[in-house]
Design goal:
By secondary structure, the protein is of the alpha+beta class. The chain has a single domain, classed as Lipoprotein localisation LolA/LolB/LppX (outer membrane lipoprotein receptor (LolB), chain A, Clam). It has five helices and 15 strands. The protein is globular and about 60 Å long.
């Protein structure tokens, strides 16, 4: 999250929509199944009595998450970040690298270089969201796509979820891998698709996010699993993410993360054609 993986995912979502043939619109799933034994409240059985265990509030879940990643103060001390790493698309065997630059309050630039495809670059300068790649060319984002770019590019997104998603609902508990996770459905403004967040009930960390990316070719839903959390300058970030799409699985691995480094503002401005 903190590394703005959503920027990278938008790039790859767009590529998949065009290159791998996903043309139809996929509606986001806002209803989430819970396990049979856990619904709106956990239950505990003692003898012949079944006592309902109180579920946490949305605010409590978000507060635990912020604390788990290092706390609000530590997160908001970071004003810029540069990250680099590798990407792999399975089962096609396509591999590549990426670099991601971001700065408070809402600027970013991400470049993905894929073997056999080339460079895919996306940026947001605080007002204009732009994209350059061999498939779609050089363009500015408009409408819902621009609104989603603004939503995804809040530098302090992790500590601002309640502000970014005015409607947040706790839908229950679901398994993510072998652990239980609280399921929160977040609905932003501007009629954008809802995002679904899964927070580990024990650690408080975000372990999965279901997102519907918007592109000129349509919409595509994907499930992203956040793994290998590591501490960098007092803040925990997921160094590995796995995104499951209809056609393939995208694995992103961070190899270098640097905070509070100088990033020229020109980095976020769309290059002239």
């Amino acid at each position: 999250m903190k590394l703005k993986i959503s920027i990278l995912l938008t790039i790859l979502f767009s590529i998949s929509l065009t290159t791998f043939g996903q043309k139809e619109t996929v509606k986001p799933k806002t209803e989430t199944k819970t396990t049979e034994t856990k619904t709106s409240a956990e239950t505990k059985t003692t003898g012949n009595k079944t006592a309902a265990a109180k579920m946490p509030t949305v605010g409590e879940i978000l507060a635990k998450y912020v604390q788990a990643i290092g706390g609000k103060q530590a997160n908001e001390k970071i004003k810029s970040r540069v990250a680099k790493g590798t990407v792999e698309i399975i089962p096609m065997g396509i591999k590549g690298t990426f670099e991601n630059y971001s700065a408070a309050p809402n600027k970013s630039m991400a470049k993905v270089t894929l073997a056999g495809i080339g460079d895919l670059v996306e940026g947001f300068d605080g007002t204009t969201a732009w994209s350059i790649n061999p498939i779609q060319g050089n363009r500015d984002k408009q409408g819902e796509e621009l609104a989603q770019a603004k939503l995804n590019n809040d530098f302090n997104r992790e500590t601002n979820l309640a502000k970014l998603y005015p409607k947040l609902e706790l839908k229950g508990i679901e398994k993510v891998s072998e652990s239980d996770a609280y399921v929160l459905v977040g609905t932003p403004d501007n009629n954008l698709p809802s995002d679904i967040f899964y927070f580990d009930t024990k650690s408080g960390l975000l372990v999965r996010q279901d997102t519907t990316a918007i592109s000129p070719e349509g919409k595509m839903s994907g499930k992203t699993f956040l793994e290998d959390y590591r501490e960098v300058d007092g803040v925990k970030v997921p160094f590995k993410t796995r995104t499951v799409l209809p056609q393939f699985e995208l694995i992103t691995t961070f190899t270098e993360v640097k905070n509070n480094v100088a990033v020229e503002s020109s980095k976020f401005v769309k290059p002239k054609a």
